[in-house]
């Protein structure tokens, strides 16, 4: 099944639709508080041994997040745990369901102070959740800093207080939680950094909201899971017993041919990594295209990968006319000389699936008088028109192409990486892979997939070249651009995680075969990401 991600605004709509259908808001709050209390008991029992013999400190804020805290306080006390509760406002300042919850708590409400947790075994952070409207500052920020220094386990309700639910940005003080319990569906901040790093283990619990509300709320993105792309998994990467008998006699030309443009003699490693990765990802043939004076050096460093010199636009035309190529990759250490830049512009006019990475992305900005890429060249390319244009920028390349959506601007204006990636995909007409510890894959029609799996081992030279090669290899076999990007990012991340420390980019393509056996476990059902029409239509 799809795992949808809802913005706090969409979540508020889900709450409201449920309330409109006859469920009391206070009932939802009680379910949320119960889930928090359950999680707290698990954590307490792990810390204090079984039996209700520990103390919980609950920090409540002025809104419904605080309301969840009051409910949890009451339930934990009923179960025999010692509870001490502080609130950022007096009971007279509470309203609605939060006021009801505070009245039902009935016990003492202290002012917030570090003294509250001095004897505690666990702190529950119910200060702010979806309603955070600005970074936390002043006395509350000091309190959060002290809490983070206390070394006590912290359970956050819905979101770690201070983290912006929509963008995952952490502008002011933020609670550093060991565990976060959220409700119905995850929010962007549970997946996007830095927010995700503050959440600890995330548990998403059912509080009685019906799935059907999603038809009305829509969703901002989905999580990247094999169910999205497993149905388009190439035959050649399946275990022999799963291959369609009619495909057992396939030859290499059925598995597609990738052409990878290559840089000069001193910069050919990146393209060679991409080429090898495309082969490992199942492309039937892969050819590297270096400039003439680098051809013998490149040829000396490859074996199954072929070499066809491409000096200029004319020779690219000749090479493309000679054989059928299914996918063209341009970027890894391509260089930004006049010649190589001309190749990128020429490739944009050709009717072939096109993956632009690294230097090819920079070529779209470098040497342009206005300093701005002409995105209409991308949008109107045959590749984009046939939904076969892919861009794989890291944040630096993304900032050059889309300066108004850069990481810096996002932080300044508190914009979400998801919204910005979707906007960039719409402007460029490309399936866009905005790489990072939280990679966002976005499509021109407004869909987004998030792969959030901090694997710092992947932050190593050449790792992005491998990713673009994997995506190209999958597309060569007929996988759609979106499915190939999602599957490629998944495989890349898994490879990094399974290898662990010491990983270098050369290791990554060699890890793919063992991952294909893992993928085989998912082959029993699913649907294509490319068939998914998004949540808000
Ligand atoms: N019926 C519902 O809507 C449900 C809501 N639930 C809980 O309600 C939460 C959302 O509740 P609210 O919308 O009341 O929002 P919050 O409780 O997250 O916070 C809103 C309050 O905080 C204040 N505030 C925001 N940023 C601040 C800052 N930086 N410094 C000081 N004060 C600040 C606002 O003025 C407002 O009073 C969710 O996170 C979830 O925990 C759950 O109880 C489930 C049901
Ligand atoms: N901390 C991290 N967690 C997960 N993935 C990461 C992390 N850091 C980098 N990556 C991934 O590693 C790859 C690096 O790509 P890139 O920056 O283009 O490197 P290069 O240009 O050296 O090939 C991207 O796919 C990115 O998503
Ligand atoms: K919270």
From TrEMBL:
> What does the note accompanying the cofactor annotation read?
Binds 1 potassium ion per subunit.
Q: Which Pfam families match?
A: Carb_kinase, YjeF_N
Q: Where does AMP bind?
A: 435-439, 464
Q: Which PROSITE patterns does the record cross-reference, listed alphabetically? A: YJEF_C_3, YJEF_N
Q: Which GO terms describe its biological process?
A: metabolite repair; nicotinamide nucleotide metabolic process
Q: Which UniProt keywords apply?
A: ATP-binding, Isomerase, Lyase, Metal-binding, Multifunctional enzyme, NAD, NADP, Nucleotide-binding, Potassium
Q: Which InterPro entries match?
A: CARKD, Nnr, Ribokinase-like, YjeF_N_dom, YjeF_N_dom_sf
The UniProt catalytic activity note for this protein reads: (6S)-NADHX + ADP = AMP + phosphate + NADH + H(+); (6S)-NADPHX + ADP = AMP + phosphate + NADPH + H(+); (6R)-NADPHX = (6S)-NADPHX; (6R)-NADHX = (6S)-NADHX
Please report the stretch or stretches of sequence annotated as the YjeF N-terminal domain.
Answer: 11-215
Which residues belong to any copy of the YjeF C-terminal domain? 235-519
Q: Which GO terms describe its molecular function?
A: ADP-dependent NAD(P)H-hydrate dehydratase activity; ATP binding; metal ion binding; NAD(P)HX epimerase activity
Subunit relationships: Homotetramer.
Q: Which family does it belong to?
A: Belongs to the NnrD/CARKD family. In the N-terminal section; belongs to the NnrE/AIBP family.
What is the name listed in the Swiss-Prot or TrEMBL entry for this protein? Bifunctional NAD(P)H-hydrate repair enzyme
What gene does the UniProt entry assign to this protein? nnrE
